Amino acid sequence: STMTVGTYLAQRLVEIGIKNHFVVPGDYNLRLLDFLEYYPGLSEIGCCNELNCAFAAEGYARSNGIACAVVTYSVGALTAFDGIGGAYAENLPVILVSGSPNTNDLSSGHLLHHTLGTHDFEYQMEIAKKLTCAAVAIKRAEDAPVMIDHAIRQAILQHKPVYIEIPTNMANQPCPVPGPISAVISPEISDKESLEKATDIAAELISKKEKPILLAGPKLRAAGAESAFVKLAEALNCAAFIMPAAKGFYSEEHKNYAGVYWGEVSSSETTKAVYESSDLVIGAGVLFNDYSTVGWRAAPNPNILLNSDYTSVSIPGYVFSRVYMAEFLELLAKKVSKKPATLEAYNKARPQTVVPKAAEPKAALNRVEVMRQIQGLVDSNTTLYAETGDSWFNGLQMKLPAGAKFEVEMQWGHIGWSVPSAMGYAVAAPERRTIVMVGDGSFQLTGQEISQMIRHKLPVLIFLLNNRGYTIEIQIHDGPYNRIQNWDFAAFCESLNGETGKAKGLHAKTGEELTSAIKVALQNKEGPTLIECAIDTDDCTQELVDWGKAVASANARPPTADN
Ligand SMILES: C/C(NCc1cnc(C)nc1N)=C(/S)[C@H](O)COP(=O)(O)OP(=O)(O)O
Ligand SMILES: [Mg+2]
Questions:
Q1: Which end of the chain is more exposed for a tag (fewer CB within 10 A), N or C?
Q2: Is residue 563's pLDDT more than 80?
Q3: If you measure from the C-alpha of residue 20 to the centroid of ligand 1, how many angstroms do you get, rounded to a whole number?
Q4: What are 182-192's pLDDT values in tens digits?
């Protein structure tokens, strides 16, 4: 048969639903890239560097469910690892494939390029094991099928990145043909007895409570439990909240939606008050870290927290393993009765949506006016990307109509993630309109990935919030390090056009300039449009100011005797 290791990998990628893989070539992976590119139904997207390549793959996974990045050994993989750590933190199944040295060189005493110049050819695999849920290095072609299937299946089951290392002389080696893809993709189900017991115990506990509430967490989508969450909200008819990193996973138009709970920077006083009045928090994929608890000030009371993670459920006094979130929420919905107290309390003081009025058209542009105009663009076909920065707080305040999607990276929080990730997302979902809100500081890390939006004619709309520096860091703790060289970001964007590109870069210094820039952007279907919005350095959300103070004091806690 003509089956080779390279073709085997290509076939598996297509069988799990990948149409595009993200690459940076290097002589350790060139032959492998041939097999992937030549395989029907699979085509490569080249990236400017391996960090952007990994971020583009995680963006593709946010839309497509799973993704693949292919890089060269050591000099490529080591920067890709930064994006792979992000995929791990954000529960995104990215398959990182790295070329590696010719097998004849490994125990030959040879020294190789791109390596540390030693005989250690294991350091990359050792790092990969830390950042993925499965890491395999193919040394013999006959082992390739089992190793590739194992790695891909673990990515699917655990919703985490995996690592596959393929030597430069391996891709063209004959290997056995793949078996049915069901061996790789068939889902695992909950242990029946544990599922029954967990839902009985949970239902019993809920029946004794006056004010249970629901809290959607960032792992809700990874667990595929969004619709089960809605079912439980309707069965309980209680108030249902989202954590900031879960925005977009539960419709804000749903009758039980009660806002973003984020301690003192929650979406409204009512949201905060009703959430904090509850006597049982039923979490679905929640994750409480220093940022999502506002410097630990909004940390949950473990005695009233019941949380279902994607493969286990914890109830005060109990833990059940191999109970999958969607099945747990779905069955629990059948075993509970109505507990409407918190929804009634919320509805009694339901916050009114304040629609800011248009700013004076010729007045200097400010943050509220920018957000008012972006809000006007968000519809059911929009995916809004919010980069780390005040864009988090601005993004969280955006109203999402049913169908609108929201992408944020609040666990990894790597500035520069949004542009490459949004490029990967747009490759996966060309039918949606992808809008990015990114600050000047973040853009300077990875903005050159606009290149691929130009090359593949992806009409991504980028709002570049230029407040002349690192405003989040200024609000946490200021110093000279929070200032940066100002760029002409609009000119930078158009400089990437070369002879053929159709990107547009526009400046907006007033409300009317922003309005006309948006009109131009919406007509540009042939490529990305960047609108550079000039706002003052201290023109940030009050939430950022309050949150920044809380995070700063948490960071400043002196060492204690026992740590
Ligand atoms: C420098 C840093 N974080 C530290 C940091 C440094 N390096 C990486 C990779 N990730 C990080 N989050 C952050 S949040 C800047 O304020 C971002 O600035 P910008 O993009 O301009 O947004 P704002 O002005 O709204 O803050
Ligand atoms: Mg900034």
A1: C
A2: no
A3: 30
A4: 999 999 999 99
Closest CA to 88 of 179, 157, 159: 159
- Counting ligand 1 atoms within 8 A of each CB, the residue from 415, 440, 465 with the most, and so the one to mutate, is 415
Q: How confident is the model at residue 2 (pLDDT cuts 50, 70, 90)?
A: confident
Mean of the per-residue pLDDT values of the chain? 97
Could you read off the pLDDT of 123-156 as tens digits, one per residue?
A: 999 999 999 999 999 999 999 999 999 999 999 9
Q: Which two tokens stand for residue 85?
A: 């750590």
Contacts of 505 (CB under 8 A, 6+ apart): 489, 490, 491, 492, 493, 494, 529, 530, 532
Radius of gyration (C-alpha) of the chain in whole angstroms: 24
The model's pTM is 0.98
CA–CA separation, 563 vs 561, rounded Å?
Answer: 6
Q: For residue 410, which ligand has an atom nearest its CA?
A: 1
Residue-wise pLDDT for 272-324, tens only, equals 999 999 999 999 999 999 999 999 999 999 999 999 998 999 999 999 999 99
The whole-number average pLDDT for the span 399-408 is 97
**Whether the Cβ atoms of residue 39 and residue 7 lie closer than 8 Å to each other:** yes
- At 107 the pLDDT is 85
**Which DSSP symbol is given to 505?**
E
Which residues are within 8 A (CB) of 485 and not within 5 positions of it... i.e. 6 or more apart?
Answer: none
Tokens of 326: 């969607």
Q: CA 468, 469, 473: angle at the middle one, nearest 5?
A: 150
Query: Which of 94, 118, 93 lies closest to 105, judged by CA?
Result: 118
Contact 91, 219 (CB under 8 A): yes
What pairing do the DSSP bridges indicate for beta strands 433-439 and 405-407?
Answer: unpaired
Cβ atoms of residues 6 and 34 within 8 Å? yes
Distance of CA 542 from the midpoint of ligand 2 (Å): 15
pLDDT at residue 353 in the model: 85
What residues flank ligand 1, with Cβ below 6 Å?
388-391, 413-415, 439-442, 467, 470-473
Distance 435 CA to ligand 1 centre (A): 19
Residue 561 has pLDDT above 90, yes or no: no
User: What are the structure tokens assigned to 402, written together?
Assistant: 């049913």
Q: pLDDT at residue 12 above 80? A: yes
What is the H or E stretch that residue 549 is in?
Answer: helix 542-555
Atom of ligand 1 nearest to the CA of 470: 16
Sign of the Cα torsion 468, 473, 475, 481 reads negative
Determine which residue's CA is closest to atom 16 belonging to ligand 1: 470
Distance 275 CA to ligand 1 centre (A): 30
